[in-house]
Amino acid sequence: MKKILMPILLLFVLILSACGSTSGETASGEKESDKENDQPETITYESENGPVEVPANPERVVVLSSYAGNVMALDVNLVGVDSWSKMNPKFEEELQGVEEVSDQNLEKIIELNPDLIIGLSNIKNVDKLKEIAPTVTYTYGKLGYLEQHVEIGKLLNKEEEAKQWVEDFKKRAQKAGEDIRAEIGEDTTVSVIENFEKQLYVFGDNWGRGTEILYQEMKLKMPEKVKEMALKDGYYAISPEVLPEYAGDYIVFSKNADSETSFQETETYKNIPAVKNDQVIEVNAKEFYFNDPITLEHQLESFKDAFLNE
């Protein structure tokens, strides 16, 4: 009898144990599921103006200045952008169906039903915008151009993705800089100019147009006159007559084809060494304005092609 009873008792214990284990796994599975469903709907973002409660996963973002490319690079949906972003040929495909808005178009913004609004600190109607959706603004240049992307990554709850891109981009841009300096010489200077309406500008090292890549990452040299006049404020307006004083051995010309370009037909311009040596790199200004990841990738490839024929 004992010989028969013992195996039965043992089997009963094993069945109970198995049931307990199955029950535990189910409970554990439910907990994991609960965790997934228990993700916070909002996060607190520490903006330069204090904490702001923003969506943990924003789905309808309006960008009123500068940062549309940062948002697109992090694969977050846009419903409204500023006119400068809308006119960028490199953004055209991704911004199909996205409305053009400004800080004055409050009714239009309301219709878009955004869950997050982003812009520069100088936009108007900030208090009214905050009534529509959480609104975060940034002071241009307060953060480095790559730090800015990481900061927007934090805002969109995608900080790690932003950091990974930044790390990879810096490596590639710095390597390209080493190759370019080896090709053109360590002391060769590069200046960046742009025509806008009837004015010419030269740029420092942090005002888009590829300046961050050329000067900060590639370590190419800036002409002394540009350094003196444009480095502090980021840009400096000049007349075509004095352009030779600001011209480097190479000139990156961020060209607005729909603005004044007649200066290119003058003897003053034609006699600039960079022009005579065919060392002017013309790019589309509307594609080069910004310093978001999409624009930076385009700028980097453009410079590699121009300097290294890659």
From TrEMBL:
Residues 22-51 are annotated as: Disordered. PROSITE patterns: FE_B12_PBP, PROKAR_LIPOPROTEIN. GO terms for biological process: iron coordination entity transport. The keyword ATP-binding does not apply. Residues 28-38 have a biased composition (Basic and acidic residues). One of its GO terms (cellular component) is plasma membrane. Residues 1-18 form the signal peptide. It is found in: Cell membrane. It is a lipid-anchor. Residues 59-310 form the Fe/B12 periplasmic-binding domain. SUPFAM superfamilies: Helical backbone' metal receptor. InterPro entries: ABC_transptr_periplasmic_BD (IPR002491), Bact_iron-sidero_bind (IPR051313). Keywords: Signal, Transport. Belongs to the bacterial solute-binding protein 8 family. This is Iron complex transport system substrate-binding protein. It comes from Thalassobacillus cyri.
